[in-house]
Amino acid sequence: MSLEGEFQKVEEKLFQNRYLVDSGQPHILVAPHEKPSKNLLAMTHLCPAGCYSQAESGQVELTADGCLECGTCRVLCEESGDITWNYPRGGYGILFKFG
User: Fold this and answer.
1) pTM (2 decimals)?
2) Which of 42, 47, 52, 45 is nearest to 14 (CA)?
3) What are phi and psi of 28, to 5 degrees?
4) Distances (CA, A) of 83 to 26, 31, 53, 68
């Protein structure tokens, strides 16, 4: 008996979620930096939504659209000042679908 048909991939489940972008009002901002800290650089691998990336210049950039609001970056980078993290305004951000 195969269990393959009973499980969905994580990507398929994440695709069910919806995200309402608050244009011009990102809830996370990366502080200007010449060289990223180890924690900020780690976010390019740790963010489950893949919102963080490293530019050719070496700086870490953020695309907050699609953020799962899990708080990983907040725990790793907010206290050091690498990022500023706020909850999205009401009605914006992630809408989880559990179906």
Assistant:
1) 0.81
2) 47
3) -130, 135
4) 12, 5, 14, 16
Q: Give the residue carrying structure tokens 């990336």.
A: 53
Inter-residue contact 47 to 65 (CB < 8 Å): no
Tokens of 6: 């009973």
Supply φ then ψ for residue 62, to 5 degrees.
-130, 135
Return per-residue pLDDT of the chain as tens, 99 residues. Answer: 455 567 777 777 777 778 888 888 999 999 999 999 999 999 999 999 999 999 999 999 999 988 999 999 999 999 999 999 999 988 898 888 765
Looking at domain 26-94, its CATH class is: alpha beta
